[in-house]
Amino acid sequence: LANVTSQLIRVLDLLALNECATNNGGCGGGRRCVDVVGPPVCLCPPGYYETFAVCQDINECLMNSTICGTPAAGSCTNYAGGYSCGCHTGYVNANTSETPCVDLNECLVNNGGCDPGNCVNSIGSWSCNCPSGYYTGGQTCPDINECATNNGGCTVGTCINSIGSWSCTCPSGYASTGQACVDIDECLTAGATCGPGTCVNSIGSWSCSCPAGYYTGGQSCPDINECATNNGGCNPGSCTNTIGSFSCTCPSGYTGTGTKFCLGSLAGSFVTAATCSPTCRNNNQFTGACSCPASTTAVTVSGMSDCNGVTAQTTTLCEAFSGTSAGDYAGSYQCTQNNPASCMRVNSRTGGCSCPAGTTSYRIDFQHGGTVGQWSAVYFCMYTPVTPTVFGGVWQQDDAVGGGLGCRYPNAFTGTCSCPAGFTTQSIRSIVQTASSFIGCIVGICSK
Q1: Rounded to two decimals, what is the model's pTM?
Q2: I need a labelling partner for 156 at 20 to 30 A (CA). Which of 8, 219, 349, 361 fits?
Q3: How far apart are CA 323 and CA 67, in angstroms?
Q4: CA dihedral 315, 321, 324, 326 (to 10 degrees)
Q5: pLDDT one digit per residue (tens) for the chain, 448 residues
Q6: CB distance 88 to 68 below 8 Å
Q7: Read out DSSP for 181-230?
């Protein structure tokens, strides 16, 4: 309307004499005089309307609520003779300030700041669709610091963040797959060598499981010099170390040269009781188990144990006869109630309940049955020495209770219930009889 009026005024000005030159053609109230053929015409300027010969402002904002677009896009501001559209963030005027506010496509400029992602325009705004390694959904694509959460999944390694990604630096024993540390199975590589042993992989490392005679648990199988510790157990002989093993050279009076023990005439003992737990009550000092060393002969002594009430047990003596010199063990036998005529187990040297000629016997009492009266004597025979050499005697010590005799049978070489210096005591728990009941005791057998 305003444009049409302006054009009309221009046409009228051209067609008529200018009567508006004097006193604005008599047009007051803010009107403009337009000289036309005939009387002049009084018109209000654009943006105004005439009321009673007075020009009043047109409030375009009230006349058209959407003149500037939707309320979300912008707002209309009226002023004398016109209006303007103020656009909200995300919107721009379609042309001039008097044109509606339309969506601003932010993605058209610098990808909306979304690099390295993609800009997604929306009405009045925009957002970024970001690749892996970047936060998405905002209006930029900031890097995600994966290392800030759970060390980036690098477990034992060190997480190194980079723009859009991360990587793992892994310690020795691990390989990096890029974003994780995985164990290296060193046993599959040429670098892990265990010699006679077996390579055992573990997380982040490896070790060697080595056979007897070698140190185990490290990353090699070095030989154990058994001779460096207690002469390899070869006393009183000499020890010779070999790779993975050793052997003994034994003096006269001992057996075992070429083996791992120098055994005197009595090569240890052990005790078993079927109703006790464990059934192996005393290990043999030479084998570490309820067994005799190789090349020895097992002879048994019947007795009773107090490990589970009063129950039967067997003491096994490991005989390794090697000579008839002074101090050599010469066998043993067991007879009922100290009566050799009632022989329970013969001496393998004599075939009866007796000691060889030229030997001395040493008595130990055993209860061999569960009722009073079922007792027996065991005699240990030895070629009489000036000092003990191979066999160090025996002794028997009663428990310190009523009816006990204390040191019932002292060792002939010490005079007490003990072994001579240099001899090992094999202690056997047993039962002996008093006048009317049973008490516990310890039998000590002294050997090398």
Answers
A1: 0.50
A2: 219
A3: 131
A4: -50
A5: 556 556 666 655 555 467 788 888 888 888 899 888 778 899 999 889 888 888 999 998 998 989 998 888 899 999 988 899 999 988 999 888 888 999 889 899 999 999 999 999 998 899 999 999 999 989 999 999 999 999 998 888 899 999 999 999 999 889 888 888 898 898 888 677 888 999 999 988 999 999 999 999 899 999 999 999 989 888 778 999 999 999 999 887 677 788 887 776 788 889 999 888 899 988 988 888 999 888 788 999 998 888 877 888 999 998 876 666 656 788 899 999 877 788 999 998 899 999 988 888 899 999 888 888 888 999 998 877 667 777 888 999 999 877 778 899 999 889 999 999 988 888 998 988 887 788 889 999 988 7
A6: no
A7: EEE--GGGSTT---TTSEEEEETTEEEEE--TTB--SSSS-PBP-GGGTG
215 closest CA partner among 226, 205, 204: 226
Residues 44, 53: contact at Cβ < 8 Å?
no
284 in Cβ contact with 290 (< 8 Å): yes
- Look up residue 341 and give its amino acid: A
SS3 291: coil
Q: State the distance between the two ends of the chain, measured CA to CA, in whole angstroms.
A: 133
CA 325, distance to chain mean position in Å, is 61
Q: Which two tokens stand for residue 221?
A: 């199988």
The answer to whether 332 and 386 are in contact (CB under 8 A) is: no
**Total number of residues shown for the chain:** 448
DSSP at 288: S
Q: Which helix (H) or strand (E) holds 3?
A: helix 2-15
Tokens of 392: 């160090």
Using omega within 30 degrees of 0 as the cis cutoff, is the peptide bond preceding 211 cis? no
Q: Which of 300, 345, 298, 301 is nearest to 320 (CA)?
A: 298
**How many Cβ atoms from other residues are within 10 Å of residue 28's Cβ?**
12
208, exposed or middle or buried, with CB in 10 Å at 0-12, 13-18, 19+? Answer: buried
Count Cβ atoms within 10 A of the Cβ of residue 165 and give its class: 0-12 exposed, 13-18 middle, 19 or more buried: middle
Tokens in use for 235?
A: 């006393």
Q: Which two tokens stand for residue 3?
A: 């444009």
